[in-house]
Design brief:
- The chain has 237 residues and is α+β, with helices and mostly antiparallel strands.
- It has one domain.
- It has six helices and 14 strands.
- The protein has a seven-stranded mixed sheet. Strands 5-4-12-11-10 form a five-stranded antiparallel sheet.
- A hairpin with a 2-residue loop joins strand 13 and strand 14.
- The chain is globular and about 50 Å long.
Length: 237
């Protein structure tokens, strides 16, 4: 599992380089009021949920936390938000419920070359994703506050989420197949989110998975499609 974590870190680094080359350098051309874009390299700021800072012409600074799903191809129909995880054998709050400085999440669904696809939409877990392996990325900008408000409006504010994770960890709240909560309701279209515990990662994270269609709705109904030829904006009604 440590090897999987190393694989994820290297893949994330390579994807960040791809974003710097083909996304951030291009978004000025699509009508934004951006003065400067700065990638954050200090561990202190990264731990506060900041990967990139966008300085607007007004002087306003937007802090972005990049989150790209590196285990699945773009056909993945949801995105996982971390509620807690084990870090160095200690259980800590996840990035969604932590008090950090994130303004926006840049959510990403990746399409890679066929050699990296294990089966269906699953990307090989033992293979690093290099820049040249990426066909394109689907990117969605959505504020952290919007995600929190959506869950809160559905009865799951931050305090309740934290208590729910404790109940699951302590066995007070049982998971279906030791992994899922509300998955059947999600599959049947009753809910737009469900909870999952991952048993394949060393961090053993507990996550809330939100439907991609709902995230697009929350993110101003547009996706950025990014490849080596540039950035296209896909708008949804």
């Amino acid at each position: 599992m440590k090897n999987l974590r190393n694989r994820d870190h290297i893949s994330e680094h390579n994807i960040s380089n791809y974003l710097d080359k083909y996304f951030y350098t291009k978004i000025k051309e699509i009508g934004t009021n951006i003065e400067q874009i700065k990638r954050v390299y200090t561990k202190e700021e990264q731990l506060k949920g900041i990967d990139v800072k966008i300085i607007q012409q007004s002087g306003n600074i937007i802090s972005i936390d990049e989150k790209v799903a590196t285990n699945y191809n773009t056909k993945l129909s949801k995105f996982a938000f971390e509620l807690d995880s084990y870090q160095f054998n200690r259980l800590v709050p996840g990035w969604l419920v932590s008090e950090n400085n994130t303004d926006y999440y840049l959510l990403g669904w990746i399409d890679v070359i066929e050699d990296l696809v294990e089966s269906g939409i699953k990307i090989k877990s033992d293979t690093v994703i290099n820049e040249e392996d990426i066909n394109y990325l689907e990117l969605l900008l959505v504020t952290k506050e919007t995600i929190i408000d959506f869950l809160s409006d559905n009865g799951y504010d931050v305090n309740y989420l934290i208590e729910l994770t404790k109940d699951i960890r302590h066995g007070k709240r049982k998971l279906d197949r030791n992994r899922y909560l509300y998955k059947n309701e999600y599959d049947n279209g009753i809910r737009d989110f469900h909870f999952t515990m991952s048993g394949t990662k060393v961090e053993n994270p507990l996550m809330v998975n939100i439907r991609k269609e709902k995230l697009i709705e929350l993110g101003n109904k547009r996706l950025f499609i990014v490849d080596k030829n540039g950035v296209k904006v896909k708008k949804f009604e």
